[in-house]
């Protein structure tokens, strides 16, 4: 029972981190093409806590953001494509530095490509607009991953160190 409580608490925490950082967006001028500040954090969560926890927390975050009116269906589509591609890369190739550096940008590129198909617009302008976010993700994912690994290594509960 105690392990299940920790797992539910961890998922709630990861969901809130993804949702809150996903609420902060850098507008890029095209509907649905804004950069979410959650991208590097999302890749780091997949690397540290695993793909299953990341996907569950990501889906919950998308549902919450959609129900609160902070995301529309395009935002949810972009987020889910990013999660499947970036998180899938980390799950399949492992959480090494080279994988983490490219998972976010490739996830963003895939999400923009799918958005272009959805909107029936050329993909190149969406990809060009996403480049600053891709660079930001690649530059910040490793330090964020190190911070999350440190946090995951042990948490203090009732004077005892325990891992989640």
TrEMBL record:
<keyword id="KW-0472">Membrane</keyword>
<feature type="transmembrane region" description="Helical">
    <location>
        <begin position="41"/>
        <end position="68"/>
    </location>
</feature>
<keyword id="KW-1133">Transmembrane helix</keyword>
<keyword id="KW-0812">Transmembrane</keyword>
<protein>
    <submittedName>
        <fullName>Uncharacterized protein</fullName>
    </submittedName>
</protein>
<feature type="transmembrane region" description="Helical">
    <location>
        <begin position="123"/>
        <end position="142"/>
    </location>
</feature>
<feature type="transmembrane region" description="Helical">
    <location>
        <begin position="80"/>
        <end position="103"/>
    </location>
</feature>
């Amino acid at each position: 029972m105690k392990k299940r409580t920790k797992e539910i608490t961890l998922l709630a925490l990861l969901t809130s981190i993804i949702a809150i950082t996903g609420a902060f967006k850098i507008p890029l001028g095209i509907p649905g093409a804004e950069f979410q500040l959650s991208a590097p954090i999302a890749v780091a969560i997949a690397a540290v806590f695993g793909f299953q926890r990341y996907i569950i927390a990501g889906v919950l975050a998308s549902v919450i953001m959609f129900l609160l009116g902070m995301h529309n269906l395009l935002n949810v589509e972009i987020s889910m494509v990013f999660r499947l591609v970036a998180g899938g890369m980390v799950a399949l190739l492992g959480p090494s530095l080279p994988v983490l550096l490219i998972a976010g940008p490739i996830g963003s590129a895939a999400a923009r490509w799918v958005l272009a198909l959805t909107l029936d617009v050329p993909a190149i302008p969406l990809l060009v607009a996403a480049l600053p976010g891709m660079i930001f993700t690649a530059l910040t994912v490793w330090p964020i991953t190190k911070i999350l690994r440190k946090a995951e290594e042990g948490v203090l509960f009732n004077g005892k160190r325990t891992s989640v």
